[in-house]
Structures are given as C-alpha cells and as structure tokens.
Amino acid sequence: MNHTIFKEIDKPESNCGVFGIYNHPEASLMAYYGLFSMQHRGQEAAGITSFFYDEAKQKMKYANHRGPGLISEVFSNPAIFNNVLKGTAAIAHNRYSTTGSTVKTNIQPFNMIYKSGIMSLAHNGNLTNTIELRNKLLEDGTIFQTTTDSEIFMHLIAHSKKTTQLEQIIEALNIARGAFSLCILTNDSLIGARDPLGIRPLSIGKLSTPTGDSYVLASESCAFDIIGAEYIRTVEHNEIVVIDQDTVKTGEIKSYKINPVTPDKCKNCIFEYVYFARPDSKIFGENVDKVRRKLGKNLAAESPVIKDDDDKVNVVPVPDSSNTATLGYATENDRLNYPSKFELGLIRNHYVGRSFISPGQDAREIKVKTKINTVKGIMNGKHITIVDDSIVRGTTSKLLVKMIREAEPKSLDMRVTSPPVKFPCHYGMDFPSKEELIANHYENEVEIGKAIKVDSLKYLSIEKLIDSVPKGENIDYCTACFTGEYPIPIEDNSDKYSTES
Fold first, then answer.
1. Most exposed of 14, 16, 157, 226 (fewest Cβ within 10 Å)?
2. What is the Cα–Cα distance from 346 to 40, expressed in whole angstroms?
3. Which string of DSSP letters, residue by residue, matches 377-421?
C-alpha cells in the first residue's frame, strides 16, 4: 500500500505562513487560531514557541511544541496551551517544504539560547545565497541541525559581534539575500521584517485585551479576523518593525531599515494575488478578493466566450481558488452581451485528509475524482467555460476536461486568470522545473488547448495581469514564474540544499 501526502492537485505548493503575537494573556492559543486560518499556506507541519518569565529563576524562558501534520493534529491536546506554551508572547509557523522530508528538526519556529539571551524565529520565503552562506558558516565551525535555509538566520545572528539583539538581527538580514518575511521573538520584543524587495507578505494587527493592547504579525490578514484583531498596515519592503512594552504603552511601533538604501520599488509576489492568498485576506495592503475579481473581468474583456446560438454560457470555477475570479469573468462576459451565468459545476470535497492511499495505475485520476466532481445537470447539453487561476503541469486540467466531457456539454472552453507558467520560483514557492511545465512543451495556447482537449484556451496576458493589481509609486511585482525575470540573483546549484521554509 502506497501512502502519500495528498497535496493540492497540480498546483504550486504554498510557501508557509508566519504569525506572531505580543502582550496577550493567551498568546499561544491566539497563535494556534492564527495558524489555523492560514492552513492553506502549509499543510505538512506546524509549530508554536511561547516566551514566559520564570519567577523562580528570575529570567525569560521559551517553550515549544511542533510536529508534522495539520495544525489541528499537531495541537490536538488542549493541555498544551495551559501546561506547556505559557506566556504572553508567541510566534508560530505552518510549513510546506520545497524539498525533503518533514523531519522534526526542520519544523519551525527555530529557537536558541545564545550570548544575548533567547530567540525564536519563523521564516516565510527562500534565501538565494544559501550555499555561499552555509559554506562560510561551516568553515567557521558552525554545526547545522537542519537542512533548511532558515537556520542560517540563527547562525548569522549568533555570530554577530553587535551589542544588541536588534543590531545583530539587522546585520544578519543584510548578509542574507533572497525572499524573507520573518517573525522573531527576543527577550523583550516581537520583531517583524520583510526583505529589501518585499517579495513575501507580512502585516500588522492590533487587538484589545484586559492587560492592554496586543499586537500581531501575520502573513495574511485572515489571521487577524479569526482572533478579532484590527488590521493596521503592511510591513513595508526593507522594513524591520519592533513591538515591545513601549509600543503597548504609547501605541508606537518602532520602525527601522534593514538596508540603509531602500529600493525605489518593492517586488511583491504577484502569484499571491493570483492563487496563494485567501480571497478574504488583505496582503500587500490590498484586498485579495478585489484583485481576483479584476483578474476575471480583464480576462473576459481580453478573451470573451462568444457563442452563435442564444444559449447562455455556464461559467464554472475550478474550486476553490478560482471562485472569485470566475464571478468577475462571468459578470463581465455577460455585460459584453455574451449571455453568461456563474455556476458551481465542479464541487470540491473538503474532507480529504492529508494521507491518500494510491490505488495503482489510475492514481492520478482517482486523486482528482476524490477531490473534485462534476454537477452533471449543469454540464449536460450546455456551453461550459471553466476558469482556473493557473495551469502548471496540465495533468489535472486534462483529467478535469475528461470528467466534464463525460457529462456531455454542448461545448467546453477554458480561461486562465494568469499568463502561462514557464519558469520555476526561487523565492519560496514550489513550482516544478521548466521541463515539467506544460507551457514549455507547446508553442502557444492553441496547442496547449488541443493537448488539454478543450475547444479553446485563453490565458490572461502579462499586460492585463499587471493592470489587475494595485498600483503605486513604490509598488512593483515579481513576475518571474511567467517572464523569467528574477529580481534577486540566483546562485548556481541553488537546489543543492533543501530550502524548507
């Protein structure tokens, strides 16, 4: 019997979620709920570290609990929050690894006791100078406990000759290169940071407690909603924020630059808007739902579905990440006088667990049918247009088309709310290699459509993709997975070591 982790079918795996909270009487429990709301960002492992003051020994200590599995599995015993994860400050991490197995040593947050006190760190993203830094640290006598690039931060901080923990962290972040959003707990503060180009998201929230205001950091604002926190703002690119007792008293969040020279524009990951983030979240200062609706509308304006007869087109999302964009597409296609109707013609089974027993030769098809099924009454004899956020390998798209064809639609078209994915990501998302991507096997979308066996296939252009996302004087986007234009240089043999942040 072959037991495998049941991942999102033929989609890039998400890139982890981080959460931090300061000055809350139930900090670890709040961290649990925050992680729970961001389960989509990592389903292989989870961990929480809390800081508490040991009255008997008159010093700060940390407690940690972590393990493989979904958040509800790792923290299934409520006693963990009362008896282990004590204290008023905590950070948390849910993990998807881009390579390698989920051994316990690789599960974050990472914790250390060193010359300046105690520290805990949770990282979302990937470093691009991992080998260079790892080799240098090994030459200096460093002993690595994990196979992740995230551990490098801890060693760089511990090796720093600077006096304060904040100075040590800033020095380390200037040495590291790549994509990172960090939550760090120190002896007396919660620290958040985004790399100089701000590729991965991180936001700040606040909520009131009986002991005063509590401050929160999270990859997505849905983590604020579940605990009743108010969204304040995004952490800016090249910014490090410090939340401490002064913040609780005055409401002032201290802000510093990582690098003295901030790049003119950030490079927010555009695929967060396309697929990864929850539609009810706010990331990079903008509502994801709003962006996805515009993606759908722009796709309809650029590539409407036109039928010669008077029958309406049933526009069907590939659940769940395409639901919002499909609403935008159906609305705009209908407004353009091409009669259209949004329909839930594909139903997703939300109760599929992490473990899946592969049955043999038909494993792929069974996996798809276990997770998604057709509503035949919506499909039969109707014009069907399925809308998806992306096509990666194309394997799932082919199987979905086969399933829909069995329901005997009158026609079957496909629209995609992003350009063709042609390049791997090196900044914290698990895209396949170039050779595995279907867009690199065919000359154009017509040929890809024939391979998938739809009547027509249209992608959103890169120009309309950029038109769909927020604009601003200092805002730009990383589109490397579509264009191959990497904003941060990639070191050679960058896959030699795991990058399991």
1. 226
2. 20
3. HHHTTSEEEEEES--SSSHHHHHHHHHHHHT--SEEEEEESSPPP
In angstroms, what CA-CA distances link 277 with 203, 274, 326, 369?
13, 8, 16, 25
Q: Is 38 helix (H, G, I), strand (E, B) or coil?
A: coil
CA 28 to chain centroid: 22
CATH class of the domain comprising 292-468: alpha beta
pLDDT tens column, 143-194: 999 989 999 999 999 999 999 999 999 999 999 999 999 999 999 999 999 9
> Helix 395-406 crosses helix 445-452 at what angle (to 10 degrees)?
50
Could you list the active site residues? 16
CATH architecture assigned to 12-283: 4-Layer Sandwich (3.60)
Q: Report yes or no on whether pTM surpasses 0.90.
A: yes
Residue 237's contacts (CB-CB under 8 Å, 6 or more residues apart) are 194, 195, 196, 197, 198, 262, 263, 266, 267, 474
The total of other beta-carbon atoms located within 10 Å of residue 57's CB is 8
